[in-house]
Amino acid sequence: MATTIALPYFAADVPAALPSEAEIDASPDLVDNFKDRRIVSVGEHFVVKYGGHVNLLEGENLLFLRERTSVRVPRVYALYSIVLEENRPFYYIVMERIHAQTLVSLWPGLSDLEKKSIIATLREDLKQLRQLPPPAHYSSLGGRPLLHVLFDSNQPGYTNGGPFDNDATLIEAM
């Protein structure tokens, strides 16, 4: 149940120097803060998701998809953590900033032909995801526990998130 990559992770193909903690902290939020987590835009090249409630598995999942599919996902430039003064871990995912409008904002103004093209792209992306070989059990990447509120607990060492060998053990845990 280990990570699928060596952590900390730093990509070799970074478009500029990675932002410092001070630059990240001073950057504008892209979305509202949620549970000790921020998502910020840092300069022209980077989006950083960071905080105590960020899981580096998200970055590993993006690296996994980039390696095994042609589904468009942001490049991951760094995955690392620091320990705060309170001995609390703080996690950072530094990824590619994609300059674009959201589909929800564009959709009403698109022609039927443009909408059909987007739907075809999404259909192909989902097809690629479905063609990835399934693991032998229910788990997160690398055989780690599932990350979901159903398996969340405030108890230290609580590991009811699997991995689960079969449907019955998964259902029992839920």
UniProtKB/TrEMBL annotation:
<protein>
    <recommendedName>
        <fullName>Aminoglycoside phosphotransferase domain-containing protein</fullName>
    </recommendedName>
</protein>
<dbReference type="InterPro" id="IPR011009">
    <property type="entry name" value="Kinase-like_dom_sf"/>
</dbReference>
<dbReference type="InterPro" id="IPR051678">
    <property type="entry name" value="AGP_Transferase"/>
</dbReference>
